[in-house]
Amino acid sequence: MTADTRKPAEIEAEIALERARLGRDLDVLQNRLTVDGLMEEVKLQVRGQIDEVTAQLRGQVGIVTRDVSVVMRDQIATASETVSRTAQKNPWPFAVIGLGLAWLAISAVTPERAPRSKKPRIGMAPVKPATRPEVHHYDSSPADMAAAQLEEDADVWADQALSAQARPVPAYDADPLWARDDQDPNPRRR
Question: Where does the record place the region Disordered (predicted)?
Fold first, then answer.
């Protein structure tokens, strides 16, 4: 046994402090093990990892940007040398391109001309403008009512005739329906 020179009041005070510290530690552990505490801890870890990845990407983007700018500068210099050499050897394509660009610039600056008259082109049949049918106004006399009904019937008949032209003609059957024998298993064909 060791010789303990502390007084019982001091030992009790130490025990009370230790209990309070253990109580705080238990509260902290309890809060960390709740759903909210675990979510907060995961959020902090994810934020830390995101910050690390962001810092790495920023460094890599800087390196890639520097490399791309060097390569682009070299490519532009090479392309400009190639274009100038080609223009010196064969200037005609560049002259035509220049004329086209000049024409485009002039047409953008000049005001619009009056529209050209629409003349029928050779080989195109002239188109006859459609005429609107004449609308008749009838009163309530029997003759006018009959005329209006005839006009409506004529429109229906005309529509039916036009739609019949679009449908194929059914095959001709020599035996009309009223002359057929439905009981005959072998109908005669003429």
Answer: 114-143, 167-190
Provide the angle, in degrees to the nearest 10, between the axes of the packed helices 35-89 and 8-32.
50
Q: Which two tokens stand for residue 98?
A: 């220049």
- Buried/exposed code over 155-184 (b: 16+ C-beta within 10 A; e: otherwise): eeeeeeeeeeeeeeeeeeeeeeeeeeeeee
Assess if residue 98 is contained within a domain.
Answer: yes
Contacts of 94 (CB under 8 A, 6+ apart): 87
Angle in degrees, CA 121, 124, 125, rounded to 5: 130
Domain assignment present for residue 80? The answer is yes
Angle subtended at Cα 150 by Cα 146 and Cα 151, rounded to the nearest 5 degrees: 115
- The answer to whether position 79 is within a domain reads yes
Spatial separation of the C-alpha atoms in residues 145 and 139, rounded to whole Å: 7
pLDDT tens, position by position, 53-110: 999 988 899 899 999 999 999 999 999 899 889 888 988 888 899 999 999 998 888 8
Domain that holds residue 46: 9-110
For 141, the token pair is 């006399």
Total number of domains in the chain: 1
In a domain, residue 141? The reply is no
